[in-house]
Amino acid sequence: MKTQLITRQGYSKLKQELDYLWREERPEVTKKVAWAASLGDRSENADYQYNKKRLREIDRRVRYLAQCLEQLKVIDYAPQQEGKVFFGAWVEVENDNGDVKRFRIVGYDEIFGRKDYISIDAPMARALLKKEVGDTAIVNTPQGEAWWHINKIEYPK
């Protein structure tokens, strides 16, 4: 089960995608389907079949986004978070081998297409929550425990 949290930026991005699909792409694809259907035999009409399939994909994504946006809780930055790792933080961590990673802890729906975002539900994020700079987080991985030292915590304001 995914945590139903999202940053303000993530919420805006999903809302923009929903608006684009509903107001721009769907009407355009609907016109193409109607045009292709008017040509006659639909069973061998590639334009009709492709655009009908695309219309189903758009409708499925629109339903998902509408339901998702209704259920998500937007979490904004609060000054009380400063100095500790909470939802929305940019965190820089380093392990004993000197490997450094920097990422932002965000909601599940925000991580796609971004290599520098991790879900609040990820083991790394869970291990880091409420920690401060200088603390060590122990992350359970399939290979065993991994120790990560927190170098930096920042919040977008």
Automatic annotation (TrEMBL):
<keyword id="KW-0804">Transcription</keyword>
<dbReference type="InterPro" id="IPR036953">
    <property type="entry name" value="GreA/GreB_C_sf"/>
</dbReference>
<dbReference type="InterPro" id="IPR036805">
    <property type="entry name" value="Tscrpt_elong_fac_GreA/B_N_sf"/>
</dbReference>
<dbReference type="InterPro" id="IPR028624">
    <property type="entry name" value="Tscrpt_elong_fac_GreA/B"/>
</dbReference>
<dbReference type="InterPro" id="IPR001437">
    <property type="entry name" value="Tscrpt_elong_fac_GreA/B_C"/>
</dbReference>
<dbReference type="GO" id="GO:0003746">
    <property type="term" value="F:translation elongation factor activity"/>
</dbReference>
<feature type="domain" description="Transcription elongation factor GreA/GreB N-terminal">
    <location>
        <begin position="5"/>
        <end position="74"/>
    </location>
</feature>
<comment type="similarity">
    <text>Belongs to the GreA/GreB family. GreB subfamily.</text>
</comment>
<keyword id="KW-0238">DNA-binding</keyword>
<keyword id="KW-0648">Protein biosynthesis</keyword>
<dbReference type="InterPro" id="IPR023459">
    <property type="entry name" value="Tscrpt_elong_fac_GreA/B_fam"/>
</dbReference>
<comment type="function">
    <text>Necessary for efficient RNA polymerase transcription elongation past template-encoded arresting sites. The arresting sites in DNA have the property of trapping a certain fraction of elongating RNA polymerases that pass through, resulting in locked ternary complexes. Cleavage of the nascent transcript by cleavage factors such as GreA or GreB allows the resumption of elongation from the new 3'terminus. GreB releases sequences of up to 9 nucleotides in length.</text>
</comment>
<protein>
    <recommendedName>
        <fullName>Transcription elongation factor GreB</fullName>
    </recommendedName>
</protein>
<dbReference type="InterPro" id="IPR022691">
    <property type="entry name" value="Tscrpt_elong_fac_GreA/B_N"/>
</dbReference>
<keyword id="KW-0805">Transcription regulation</keyword>
<dbReference type="InterPro" id="IPR006358">
    <property type="entry name" value="Tscrpt_elong_fac_GreB"/>
</dbReference>
<dbReference type="Pfam" id="PF01272">
    <property type="entry name" value="GreA_GreB"/>
</dbReference>
<dbReference type="Pfam" id="PF03449">
    <property type="entry name" value="GreA_GreB_N"/>
</dbReference>
<dbReference type="GO" id="GO:0006354">
    <property type="term" value="P:DNA-templated transcription elongation"/>
</dbReference>
<feature type="domain" description="Transcription elongation factor GreA/GreB C-terminal">
    <location>
        <begin position="81"/>
        <end position="155"/>
    </location>
</feature>
<dbReference type="GO" id="GO:0070063">
    <property type="term" value="F:RNA polymerase binding"/>
</dbReference>
<dbReference type="GO" id="GO:0032784">
    <property type="term" value="P:regulation of DNA-templated transcription elongation"/>
</dbReference>
<dbReference type="GO" id="GO:0003677">
    <property type="term" value="F:DNA binding"/>
</dbReference>
<dbReference type="InterPro" id="IPR018151">
    <property type="entry name" value="TF_GreA/GreB_CS"/>
</dbReference>
<keyword id="KW-0251">Elongation factor</keyword>
